Amino acid sequence: MGGGSELAFHARGRGLSGREHYDLAVRLSDSQTVRLVVNDRLDVALAVPTAGVQLGHGGMPVSAARALNPLWWIGKSVHDLAEADAARTEGADYLVVGPVFATASHPGRTPLGLAILQQIVAPAADLPVIAIGGITADRVREVRGAGAYGVAAIRALWDDAEPAAAARRMREWMS
Question: I want to staple 16 with a disulfide (CB 3.0 to 4.6 A). Which of 12, 20, 102, 163 is the partner?
Fold first, then answer.
């Protein structure tokens, strides 16, 4: 797929045991060209060389994570403008906003849509905003047009017959 400083692997898995999450992070950390960010498992992030952590809504405060490793790039998952403002005040380095579109990973959660994404991006201009939830290669231009710095995708890559080609299209359309 190709790497670069603009790409990151996120070691995440709500259904994984601690050992499984650790093993996943170890496998993902083998890439020398892509950053590794660990989601919601600070114990794993401390045990494996990582570029940062992604903190879930209602999880540990950014300041507590920063105290564990001041070099981490710390992101916060947000679902509305109030949460985005709070994360910015806490000192998050980036925001993950979603779900922007309907997604099978969060059934029953109402998608934010592009208008709300744009509202969150505007005051957060000082922070990169990553759009997540229902992101496909065809939607990259839309979320980029709404002001998102980047996108996060899972199913769009897993379900594509040619995931490497889909990832390349996403990277091209981000620029």
Answer: 20
